[in-house]
Amino acid sequence: MNVDEYKDEHARTIIHIDIDCFYAQVEILKRPELKNVPLGIQQKNIVVTSNYIAREFGIRKCMLLTEAMQLCPNLVLVNGEDLNDYRTMSYKVTTLLQKYSEIVERLGLDENFVDVTKLVEQKLKNTDRSAGDPNQDVTNIVGSNDSYCQCGCEIRLKIGSLIADEMRRLIHNQLGLTSCAGIAHNKLLAKIVCSTHKPNQQSMLFPDSALELMLSLNNVESIPGIGRATSDILKSLGVRTVQDLQNAELSELHRLFEIDKAKFLQNLSFGIDNSPVKKSGKPLSLGLEDSCKLICAENEVKEKLGDLLKRLLLLVEADGRLPKTIKLTIRKFDKLTNTSRRETKQTNINPQFFTSGCVSQMNPNNIQKILMILMNMFRKLVRVHKPFHITLLGISLVKFNERPSFRNSIAPFLRKDIEVQSIISIENLNSNESSPESRTHSPSSCRESSDPECEPTPKRTKLSIFKRNFLEYDTCESPSKLRVQDLQLTSDSVQKVRCPSSIDESVFRELPLEMQQELWSEYKNSQIDYASCENKPKKIKSTNTILNYFVKQ
Ligand code: DCP
Ligand code: MG
Ligand code: MG
Q: Which protein residue's CA is at the shortest distance from atom 20 of ligand 1?
């Protein structure tokens, strides 16, 4: 085969990272005394994963609790039904990996693909190719083939494995987690090779060993990308092993699959996977659900939803965006037919409920309002005056606004006027600072809590907005700082703008004229009763307006 052809095929360097016994490691970080005992993570009656000590007793993922306890009577169990800490840690891992490449694809909670092709190219330019294999000791090279392709993939993958080693060290140093890595020229092979040496190891595959690796898999179901449904169809054609799939006639496969899918499946069996690493964005929805024993009373539903909501708000806080739509999921159990049915209902929600940034600072009234909205939806799904049986409740948030950034919105106003503002408001700012309320809600106290998304509660402290911007921008180069005289001239010579009834007039009058005008026009346009937004969703035109930062509580 011609070298150029190989070059195209092997041009990429992909690293797959998988955290070792992920849930168990997260629990051990919370309770280090669990480190040296056999530990199982329980969800309902199943042990979803366990640490490696427990695995020595034969505990496997998703084993029934009873079976696990028989194998290892000393197994220590921790409940792993609340995924919050796992999810938070999962995003921390992804964030660390994004330091190496902007192309990072998340898979489940504990895996990431990283396309490091660019970084490898950069390093190649600076590397002395005769320098040998500095990473031979830390990387398992999978496959017995020792004749290497001449396209340059060998050195690229070796550099890739150096990067993988660095990534794993970083994850360990920063987050305390051990992990495995697979290094190959495509996602499929990187993922498979990653799992060949565990835990806390990394493995690399040169392209010439791809077939050998694929043939080492037990059956087609072991190929990532082939699930139970596809493998059942393949079985009906007599295709069970990877070799069966390699040898199958494409026309035969095409009888049961679209031609593209048939080719894709056969390619997989040869270790060919041209799919790109897709940059993962933030999740499309944030949700939690809990199955439960029969719930038959409204107050129980409310209590359960309240608990779920509190947990969900922590996810919203970590995510940083402002949700626009809330969805309720229930599972109804029908005692007559002994069957269950899931139903959902969704409605718009005011993103301003979530602007405080920190759950601890969220207005309790807003939490109550969200709960009321959920209960209204519940009553639309269930006839509460008749007997009902609920076995699952879930809340999810879909559709988001980005958190308004001061730099992109009203900040330019403030930057222009900051010098003036700092003078005319200095007294208020100082007096604000000493009040207990402002201490609790001040931006600096948020920053101390190390939440980068944390912002002051705009509705609560009108002047703190200025304080915050004053603090943020007082060192900025201001392109057009106004002098005090300019302001006085302006304020004397212009007509008074009307003050919206929802804003404290003394605060309003201190604002720059342009902002006063903007607030007045937004006030005129909006006139929204946010508390009842559930019933009037269409009226909400623009929820992220500066007006929202000034309305009275
Ligand atoms: N998980 C789950 N249900 C499964 C498999 C896994 O809830 N059927 C959870 C528990 C795991 C986490 O997802 O900790 C990551 O899955 P992995 O398959 O990567 O398993 P582990 O990370 O636990 O172990 P390993 O060291 O084998 O990667
Ligand atoms: Mg894992
Ligand atoms: Mg995994």
A: 21
**C-alpha dist (Å) from residue 284 to 281, 310, 324:** 8, 20, 12
Collect residues with CB below 5 Å from ion ligand 3.
18, 110-111
| Tally of CB atoms within 10 A around 62 | 9
Q: Which CATH superfamily is domain 14-19+83-214 in?
A: Reverse transcriptase/Diguanylate cyclase domain (3.30.70.270)
DSSP 481: P
Query: Separation of 525 CA from ligand 3 center, angstroms?
Result: 51
Q: List the residue whose alpha carbon is closest to atom 7 of ligand 1.
A: 48
Highest mean pLDDT among 226-240, 287-301, 414-428: 226-240
* pLDDT tens figures, 532-550: 333 333 333 334 445 555 5
Per DSSP, the chain holds a count of helices (H) and strands (E) of 23, 14
Proximal ligand: closest to the CA of 195: 1
Instruction: List all residues whose CB is within 6 A of at least one atom of ligand 1.
Output: 18-23, 48-49, 61-62, 109-110, 198-199
Reported confidence tier of residue 282, pLDDT bands at 50, 70, 90: confident
Superfamily grouping for domain 286-401 = DNA polymerase, Y-family, little finger domain (3.30.1490.100)
- Choosing from 16, 22, 53, 59 the residue with most ligand 1 atoms within 8 A of its CB, the one to mutate for a pocket test is 22
Cis peptide before 199 (omega within 30 of 0): yes
CA of 199 to the centre of ligand 2 (A): 9
Portions of the chain given CATH number 3.30.70.270: 14-19+83-214
Strand ranges of the sheet holding 202-205, from the earlier edge strand across to the other edge? 104-107, 111-115, 14-19, 179-184, 202-205, 139-142
Tell me, yes or no, if the pTM score tops 0.70. no
Q: Tell me: the pLDDT tens digits for 11-52? A: 999 999 999 999 999 999 999 999 999 999 999 999 999 999
